[in-house]
Amino acid sequence: MPRPALTAEQKSGMRRHIRDAVLRIARRRQLEPNDVRGWEEITIRDVIKEAEISIGTFYKYFKDRSELGQFLWLEPVQGLKSAMQADFDQTENPDDKIRVLLEHYVRFSIENHRVFRGAFLFVRPEDQKPTETVPLKDDIFYTNLCTALEQGQDCKIFRSFEVHEMAQLFWAAIHGSLSLPANLDRYEFDNPEKIAANMIQELLSLVAVSKECKA
Question: Who wins on pLDDT, 202 or 119?
Fold first, then answer.
């Protein structure tokens, strides 16, 4: 008789078991959050030995090492979204709401360097399709950006523009200000935090109603 299919709870339990094995390895090797190279050197062989599972079991729950990495980063990324949402909801002015979102994004990249590199700077090989495509409207960072931009237009403090296009431009700009120094670290860029702070100012200036219009 065929084995009964695993329940969602059983699948989730095994994925957490494998994740915990990775974290135990990291603790033994005394890896710090910013030790990117150290984390990259944890192999699938290391993981299955620590978790006491077969290679077949590993691939039953994770497509590859990259998917395992995404699972490892799920909790801190969710923490980012929760903190970002709480501060966004408590802020009234549209321009302040945007600043809150962008500053959370920047702070997360600085304080969670390893997670940011793995979850936000990962470039999927061209021959590897994503496991799932998520619409932009399902991401709270993006939808909150749109909400704040729309509110700014309603209040007449932001000029006229297509909101969804501008939200993507904002995301691309703040992400680029953080990823460029990381990806091209052979160049002597300014501190990413400084670049990002300047980028936030420029982005808010981009959408603001000009002084001439206010007059």
Answer: 202
